[in-house]
Design brief:
This protein is of the alpha/beta class. The chain has 3 domains: 10-153 and 267-380, HUPs (Rossmann fold, 3-Layer(aba) Sandwich); 155-262, Glutamyl-tRNA Synthetase, Domain 3 (Glutamyl-tRNA Synthetase, domain 3, Alpha-Beta Complex), CATH 3.90.800.10; 411-525, Beta Barrel (Ribosomal Protein L25, Chain P), CATH 2.40.240. It has a 7-stranded mixed β-sheet, covered by helices on one side. A 7-stranded mixed β-sheet has the order 23-20-21-22-16-19-24, with no helix packed on it. It has a 4-stranded antiparallel β-sheet with strand order 6-7-8-9. A hairpin with a 5-residue loop joins strand 21 and strand 22. The radius of gyration is 30 Å and the shape is elongated. Mean pLDDT is 87; it is low at 92-145 and 306-314.
């Protein structure tokens, strides 16, 4: 039987053809270029996994490059959080035994309280593995041998010199139109744009004006540098796009050195060329920007060799190629940075790392694993057509991953006492329980058992329907890992609420099996009341009730679709005593309930807090069937 070779996505096909023909000298270099103006979300995770995965598969290099060209929206907090998120997401792909791969900040996989805003405590020594943050005087940890961290700001001087060259060639000019005038003069598909007088100035005059822009002679909005391309291009990106604008504010890396900053379209291709990126992979919204990407490189190539000719085709600069793929859209959430910021600023969520948010730090806080996110990204694949992915695929990916690795524990979310009337008072037994049926090497643990237990309120029903297999008067059930018990009745308060359930046990069924071979249909979990550990549990659900809350055809404000039941806090949960030693970000399966992790912000040894990562089953699917 012959092995079936996995099918290649379109980017892998392009790369393999490039390798076959010797393009780029057989090198593969990819990059992930976030703007440090917000926290990364699950859509960015797809791009990270794609770019890093291609570099790994083809023995190439991967660069995390910050396109930090707009100091009005950028903060060092975002830089640090992005580095932490990328490290967390791809870090498991590094050799776990390498001394260059320290554990994530705060312990475990989730980061500690210092990681809430992306801070990385315990900075590394000076030298390799760190980057400088000049304004804060801090160093930021950069973990792993396979990732290089770069900043667009490091190339500002080179970009500026190339801009001067374009001006001298008559390919760029200084424009005095305001933003409003630019919009008004942009033209229509049948009418060309109306340029400013600077388009016809001699190069020397425009160069003088550009240098005055750099020296701070103009106010913000008074001047821009524009490329001189085509006033009537059907592609509006080619209608004399802006290359530089004036922003008089400090930059997180360069301080007050600059008051003019490059636009993304000007900087993008130049950064790729300087870093010798072979495959510049963007989302589909940049498809119509590719002609501009190529135009800028064409102009620079005529006069601007780097330290030596480095392109295999003899060109003066390295010529990367831009490719586009479909971005990730998920149901029951929004991906817009602006809208996510609005949720945070309006207090509609607790922060960027709220477990209901689609941010990577939110996923981490909820208990998602990097392996699950990578598996999800692999499953949905790479396409050239936009589509929306059902969030169930992401939820199932985390269930599949945690089912294999999460230790099982017993916890009672809504406790009611179960009293075993014929069990000796004052006696405690230690019963053996399996830690993980999916992994025998995880072994077993001892769980205390006594006369008074806690069970779930909904595991008892006084007047039960025919197919109710849990506790009801006269019915026998199995207590997980323990004994068969038969319900004998209950005690109620003055309002008729059940306060205690009573039963008898069969001593011959220790371990949950009967010597006479009789069977019971129901098994319920429990916790010894005397030994129980109290905790708070936060039940997180989808943030929105509508599948597409950001539907452009729907005039309703997306915030009107916020799910009022997306968070339920239960404050008096009873857990088995082994969980008293649970540490930050550890993940467990609470048997019969779901997957949970220790909260990395609020949980302490004296006040445990667990976040629900996922239910055992898709409860929304049941609701929709009923619906």
């Amino acid at each position: 039987m012959t092995d079936i070779k996995p099918s290649l996505n379109f980017l892998e096909q392009i790369i393999e053809e490039d390798l076959r023909t010797g393009k780029h000298g057989g090198r593969i270099a990819t990059r992930f270029p976030p703007e440090p103006n917000g926290y990364l979300h699950i859509g960015h995770a797809k791009s990270i996994c794609l770019n890093y995965g291609l570099a790994q598969k083809y023995n190439g290099t991967f660069t995390l490059r910050f396109d930090d060209t707009n100091p009005s929206k950028e903060e060092i907090e975002y830089v640090e959080s992005i580095i932490e998120d990328v490290q967390w997401l791809i870090g498991e792909l590094f050799n776990p035994h390498s001394s260059n791969v320290p554990p994530p900040s705060g312990g475990g996989m989730g980061g500690g309280q210092d990681s809430v805003k992306g801070r990385c405590p315990n900075p590394l020594p000076e030298g390799e593995g760190t980057i400088e943050s000049p304004l804060l005087g801090e160093r930021v940890r950069v973990r792993g041998k396979g990732m290089t961290v770069k900043f667009a700001a490091d190339y500002f001087e080179q970009m500026y010199q190339w801009a001067e060259e374009l001006i001298l060639k008559g390919k760029a000019y200084v424009c005095d139109q305001t933003l409003e005038e630019m919009r008004a003069n942009r033209g229509t598909p049948t009418q060309p744009m109306i340029p400013s007088a600077g388009r016809d100035f001699p190069p020397e005059k425009n160069l003088e004006l550009f240098r005055q822009m750099r020296d701070g002679h103009f106010n913000e909005g008074e001047r821009t540098l524009r490329a001189k391309i085509d006033l009537a291009s059907p592609n509006f990106n080619m209608r004399d796009p802006v290359m530089y604008r004036i922003l008089k504010m400090p930059h997180h890396r360069t301080g007050d050195k600059w008051c003019i900053y490059p636009m993304y379209d000007w900087a993008h291709g130049l950064e790729d060329a300087i870093e010798k990126i072979t495959h510049s992979i963007c989302t589909l919204e940049f498809e119509h920007h590719r002609p501009l990407y190529d135009w800028f490189l064409d102009q620079i190539d005529e006069f601007a060799p780097l330290t030596e000719p480095i392109a295999s085709d003899g060109a003066n600069i390295y010529r990367p190629r831009q490719y586009e793929f479909a971005r990730l859209n998920l149901t029951y959430t929004v991906m817009s940075k602006r809208k996510l910021l609005e949720l945070v600023k309006n207090g509609l969520v607790s922060g960027w790392n709220d477990p209901r948010m689609p941010t990577i730090c939110g996923c981490r806080q909820r208990g998602y694993t990097p392996e699950a996110i990578r598996a999800f990204c692999k499953e949905i694949g790479v396409a050239r057509m936009n589509s929306t992915i059902d969030v169930v695929k992401l939820e199932n990916a985390i269930r599949d991953d945690l089912n294999k690795r999460a230790l099982r524990r017993m916890g009672v979310l809504r406790p009611i006492k179960l009293i075993i009337d014929n069990y000796p008072g004052g006696q405690t037994e230690q019963l053996e329980a399996v830690n993980n049926p999916e992994n025998e090497s995880d072994g077993t643990r001892l769980v205390p058992f006594s006369k008074v237990l806690y069970i779930e309120q909904d595991d008892f029903m006084e007047d039960a329907p025919k197919k109710y297999f849990r506790l009801t008067p006269g019915q026998e059930v199995r207590l997980r890992y323990a004994y068969y018990v038969t319900c004998t009745g209950c005690v109620k308060d003055a309002s008729g609420n059940v306060t205690e359930v009573h039963c008898t046990y069969d001593p011959a069924t220790r371990g949950g099996q009967s010597a006479d071979g009789r069977r019971v249909q129901g098994t319920i979990h429990w916790v010894s009341a005397e030994h129980a550990v109290s905790a708070e549990v936060r039940l997180y659900d989808r943030l929105f009730t509508k599948e597409n809350p950001d539907d452009p055809q729907d005039p309703t404000d997306y915030k009107d679709y916020l799910n009022p039941h997306s968070l339920e806090v239960i404050t008096d949960v009873k857990l088995e005593p082994s969980l008293a030693d649970a540490t930050i970000a550890e993940r467990y399966q609470f048997e019969r309930i779901g997957y949970f992790c220790v909260d990395s912000v609020d949980s302490t040894p004296d006040r445990l807090v667990f976040n629900r990562t996922a239910s055992l089953r898709d409860s929304w699917a049941k609701m929709e069937k009923k619906g």
